[in-house]
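Supplementary notes for students who missed Thursday's class. We covered one full example, reproduced here. Read the sequence, then the structure, then the short commentary at the end.
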Amino acid sequence: MGMKNEDWEMLKEMPVGNSLVKDDIWDMSPLMPSKVVKDGHKKLRFLYIRNPHMKRLIKEYAYYKLSAVKPITLVGIVNGSLPFFIRYLEEERISDFRDFDRELYLGFVKYLKEEAGISASTGMAVTCIVEEIIRIGQIRGWDVPEGFLFQGLDPVVLWGKNRTKEKVRPIPEDVFRQILSHALYDEKDILTKAGIIIQSQTGLRIGEVLCICEGCIGRTEEGADFLETYIRKTEKGEPVCHRVFINDLVKDAVCELSEKTKRMRQESGLKELFLVRTKEQVSVCKVEKWSARRLRSFIRRHDIRDSSGELYHLRSHQFRATFVRELVKRKIPIAMIMKQYAHVSVEMTSYYLTLQENEVKDIYAEMVLSPESGIAGLRAGEIRQTLSTVYRGKTADEIGDVISDLAKTMSFNPLPTGVCLYDFRRGNCTDGDGCFFYNCPNFITEIQFYPVLKRELEMLELEMSRLKELGHTREWQKQYVKYKYLKPLVEELEVEIHEKENAG
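Structure (token representation):
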């Protein structure tokens, strides 16, 4: 068993960055040109692997894995995760990895839990990497154990972790209003204030916010202000300079931040705006410390609490989901936003493509299917009754998972003023207006869409009045078909609103 020696002889002479596969340190700098990543984090180190056979196996895996993940991810696997496994093999005095069996695998999991001093998330990640090495190795002919080593053993179960990744949900509206208000009028720390304002008004990730530099604000020929930043999560893995349109809140926050950190930029020579001083040294604010320190302190400082009375657990990525929710509520088509951003930066199109299929759909689901939703439509009563039964006795997190599952099983399709529960696999369907014309039972709306629907009803009434005065009976009748279905829908939402106000 194992890769043929002649194949290995050929592989070990293959170039990897500035190195060869046979080298014990792979310099990945050419594959990681970003200046944000330190030079020390651009090297794969195999020196800790003393067993030559195991070192060869890990190099084979690393070379294979490089075609599937970003170099920075591979650095974390080889330098950060695998040393736990190699240390365990050495302690168990395993010189031939083919002798690794089911009992040793379970022993490794126990070792990670009791002796390695790492979190359950890290432990499960390391366990999955070992499984992958063996699984891929069996296919590609590496020196790995034979047989179904992990049959009946699920890392998720072994580590007691939830199989589904926790979904980042939008900030509740009342909490969001508190956060923005305190950031605008009460927050004294300029870095925290500017970060919250920029994220909440642009939907940028915190890493993209913290890297903005002096002179980052510009204006298009049409007179629109934009902010220039860098997107790190791209297909090539390299940061891409791109621009997003901004409002006056963002513009004022950036200008204030620029002025407050001006002296530190002069001292350090750094161009970034989010600067901190630690022990007489000036550096850029760290992404990993933002939510854990600044946002948590901000919430405590201003005593911002959730509906249960607990201090709200705010994470920076929630601003992105909240930003999209606000766009949806204002009936702004995502396609139009993409087009507008593309006028400034082509990269913005691909940046927002994922929102249309995933985040927007989740946001609509949260708005329409949550226990607090006030929905209207022909099937609203049936859906409310079903959801009440499903949600009974479940925690908030469990309800969130149910909502995500329901959105998928119900063929949940977002519309400008609600959702359509029609399964498009059955054939074509009419557009959003058809839901009014045909009083479609698949159309469901929610009180957050009330202002849009109410305005549409008022405009429809004005148009009908105009047509009646002109004597255009046929055109009036066409509008009336829509009116007789839209009016009760709006009235139903008004009832929901009054009931919630009285309950509050």
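Commentary. The longest strand covers residues 225-231. Residues 473-503 form the longest helix (31 residues). If anything here is unclear, bring it to office hours.
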